[in-house]
Amino acid sequence: MPVKTIIQTVRDTLHEEMARDETIMILGEDVGLAGGVFGATKGLQAEFGEMRVMDTPLAESVIIGAAIGAALNGLKPIPEIQFADFILPAFDQVVSEAARMRYRSNGTWNVPMVMRVPWGGGIHGALYHSQSVEAFFAHVPGLKVVVPSDPYDTAGLLRSAIDDPDPVMFMEHKKTYRLVKGEVPDGDRYTVPIGKAEVKREGTDVSVFAYGLMLYNSLQAADALAAQGVSAEVVDLRSLQPLDRDTILESVRKTGKALIVYEDNLTGGFGAEIAATIAQEAFDSLDAPVRRLAGPDVPAMPYAHTLEDQFLPDIEKIATEIRLLAEY
Fold it and tell me: What is the per-residue pLDDT across 157-172, written as a single tens digit (0 to 9) for each?
């Protein structure tokens, strides 16, 4: 199988899906002629035309609002929010309209829309290009929130999101775009189910739950600790809404210890939901307190490399937390 980066996988999957289904359209800032700031849509406008790969004004509420309208009229729009930080002007469109359309219409209308949202830090992007917004949207019933962490899952989950009759927020961690590589079957339209976590690394001492860049860092930390006799099980959540609670609980009941790693601010971050689930459903299986490792409660990720490094949970910090739990 060919080895691809995540950004290559996104681009190839979009191309394959647009060639397969003429109702799919892409819209967003610089997605057309420029091919997107990360190159995710490079070459698509030249092949499919300006009506299917459409450059828009710098107005996120317009991008999402127009996509909702297109979805209600028989198309499958894939709006791109250039950086997750920019989605807040469209918050009302996403939450009040897209997510609630099926409920408010008693099932008469639905919004088959995939919002591609590059997110996260570690790219020296500073406060307006590094935010984690997943907790805001995972709170909203009617909206699915998907976070792939490797190329294989990126292709499979993106296809599942396109097939879904309701809105899906498809979150791509920017630092993983070219950092993470993996095999992707060529010519095989496989899908990965939304709402199903996966154990990426089996272990017996500690369960580590992560997504995005933190999944990659957690796997590196677990590999490093294996040489020291510490066996960490690493679970890729892959989907935050719906959340695969069964896989989470099965892992915790196996190891008796849980570490949740995410780069959003600690307080109110999505990891708190996982911690609460474990405390409520698997308390009797715990041999140590549930621990969270996350970004500090500061307003934004700083620009300076040294401070950005201090903000992010890295491989060393994760390894330290795993070791602490293993020795508890």
Answer: 999 999 999 999 999 9
259: which strand partners?
Answer: 208, 291
Given a cut of 70, the residues of the chain with pLDDT beneath it are none
Element (H, E) at 306: helix 305-311
Strand runs (DSSP E) across 185-301, as ranges?
Answer: 198-201, 206-210, 232-236, 239-241, 258-265, 291-295
User: What pTM was computed for the model?
Assistant: 0.97
The token pair that represents 126 in the structure block: 């500073």
Strands (E), 91-212: 114-119, 144-146, 168-173, 181-183, 198-201, 206-210
Residue type, 250: E
Q: Which of 15, 124, 129, 139 is catalytic?
A: 129
Q: How confident is the model over 265-287, as pLDDT tens digits? A: 999 999 999 999 999 999 999 99
Whole-number pLDDT of residue 154: 98
**Where does residue 191 rank: exposed (0-12), middle (13-18), buried (19+ CB within 10 A)?**
middle
129 is a catalytic site residue: yes
Going by C-alpha positions, the residue among 195, 189, 145 that lies closest to residue 21 is 189
CA distance 275 to 268: 11
* All residues at 6 or more sequence positions from 55 whose CB lies less than 8 Å from its CB, including other chains: 27, 28, 29, 30, 31, 32, 33
Q: How far apart are the first and last CA of the chain?
A: 42
User: All domains of the chain, ordered by start, with CATH?
Assistant: 3-183 (3.40.50.970), 198-326 (3.40.50.920)
Question: Which amino acid is it at 246?
Answer: D
Per-residue pLDDT, 187 = 87
For residues 60 and 64, give the distance between their C-alpha atoms in angstroms, rounded to a whole number.
6
- Cα angle value 150/326/230 (rounded, 5°): 60
Question: How far does CA 133 lie from the centroid of its chain?
Answer: 10
